[in-house]
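[audit] Reproducing an earlier prediction to check determinism. Same input, same settings, fresh worker. If the tokens differ from the archived copy the diff job will pick it up downstream; this log only records the rerun itself.
[audit] input (153 residues):
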Amino acid sequence: MRQDSRLSRMLHVLIHMGRHDGAMTSDMIASMLDANPVVIRRTMGGLRDQGYVNSVKGHGGGWTLARPLAELTLLDIHHAVGEPSIFAVGPAYDMPGCPIEAAVNATLEGVFTNARRLLMERFAGVTLADIANTVPSACTLKKSGPARPDDAI
């Protein structure tokens, strides 16, 4: 099963934006992530709708942070990228009349609900500045190969 990396990739982008002087274009971000600029614009648009980034069209335009990294949490970005699933495992509904399957599902759902709640609490307590402060200040954007049209963030 392929992992959903939207949260990780957007955290990566936003921290770079926090260190970048000026706006970053969708092409710049796409090159950095080896993704398609159209996918970048769509994803960044969701962040803009939540008030986390600004966009300016035209020459010299691009994406900038609307808030400092210290005001953005993992939970904020998790919500903004569509709340991707955290677990790759889950209940099975192959035999709806089986009391054993029902008991297993009820137990798993309870455990997953509790684990998700704890994870969301932890996400709320970590800012992007907390992450950025663990990275050497000398880290800069690096160019990568051309974007592939079917790449998703």
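[audit] rerun output stored. Observation attached for the diff report: The chain has six helices and two strands.
[audit] end
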